[in-house]
């Protein structure tokens, strides 16, 4: 099974199955309000790169925007989009919450530095 990684900082990353990774990446493409960031994430998806590095791939303002999206919007969006009848819903939300929690922790660390 293929997997993808989102590095939310130099030393913290989220590893997930390819479908979870693509789901999160598509969420970012559809919600990030930075054209260059969206274009890069689209390339990651289209070229099956399977790694998004927030520190290495984005400007600091785009990184902050992405962390905010992951922290504040990812789970509400997922809860709306995954049907309550979907047997995969609970597992998917659990895995996506791990990403949201990592983004929250890193954003908090950034604020304190």
What would you note in describing this structure?
The protein has helices spanning 18-31, 35-46, 54-57, 60-72, 74-81, 89-112; strands spanning 3-7, 13-17, 51-53. With 113 residues, the chain is mainly alpha-helical. It has one domain (3-112). Helix 1 packs antiparallel against helix 2 (35-46), helix 4 (60-72) crosses helix 6 and helix 5 (74-81) packs antiparallel against helix 6. The longest helix has 24 residues, at 89-112. The protein is globular, with a radius of gyration of 13 Å.
Descriptors:
single chain, 113 residues, mainly alpha, three-stranded mixed beta sheet, 6 helices, 3 strands, 12% strand
Give a quick precis of the structure:
The protein has one domain (3-112). Helices cover 66% and strands 12% of the residues. The protein is built from 6 helices and 3 strands, in the order ββααβαααα.
Question: What is the topology?
Answer:
Layout: E1 3-7, E2 13-17, H1 18-31, H2 35-46, E3 51-53, H3 54-57, H4 60-72, H5 74-81, H6 89-112
Parallel strand pairs: 1-3
Antiparallel strand pairs: 1-2
Helix pairs in contact: 1-2, 4-6, 5-6
